[in-house]
Amino acid sequence: MELSRAIVSAPLSPPTLRPAPGPRLGRRLPFGAFSPPQPLSNVREHGRCISRALRPRLEWVEGWVRSNDTLVRSLPILVGGASLVAVLLNRAVSGIAAVADASSSQSRADILTLALSVTDILAGLVWLSIRPKSISPVVPRGVECKRVGPGVSNPALHELLWAWDSLTTATCCKSLVVVYGGNCILQIGVAAGSPEDGNALTVDTQKFIQGSLYKSAMESKKQSYLANLALYPGRSELPFLPANTQALILQPIGDKGIAVVGGDTIRGFTSIDQAWIAMIADKLDATLSKSFNS
Asked: According to the lineage, what is the superkingdom (predicted)?
């Protein structure tokens, strides 16, 4: 009895915790075993090593192809011509009759080789004749303009100028016209010059509203993107823009307005730019509706 009390009342020593042994290098964990995640620094460093290893090779190949564009396009002609000459020399040196014999395997192989060589030569000629047209931004022909319509409050003006700064910084936008509530409340950027005094042409709001571009955009309530403005006859409805405006976006602003965004590059507005311009229009609609309703 005394012995059992002594055992029960004896204090227990706290258990000693031993750290779990880490995995040995060069030893793979069995399938299904838990492996602790690597530190984020190691993952990032590993990703940097991969990107550094692949990027120079890709840049070297791309740079070499760009600097030797004519040679790369001529490679099929060179390969096809060399193959053609090799087949003819082999035919002449090997002592085979010059006349093709359908029963001879050598003749059939030579005919196939000649066909492939001619195909390579024709492909090289196509590559040399068809070259992608380089698209570069142009300098808009016009005058700088900054006009604010009447009745625009300070918060609305601040919002409009913020939209203009954002568009010019992130996209190829060079001209911006905002028509809201039947009035032009903002004309900023490069505008067409007047032939009389050389000043920027004012926006004839009523004439613009009656045009087909404005009506189609407002009826659909969707963004209209004219990637190459020179191909559209409706550009005559936009005399206030520079004559060499390359691309155009008509973005409805709610039910009362529209934003005319002119760019200096053909197909210069990407899909991300278009989506971003639509979001800016929603933000402008919320601000302008409060400003003109108050």
From this structure: Eukaryota
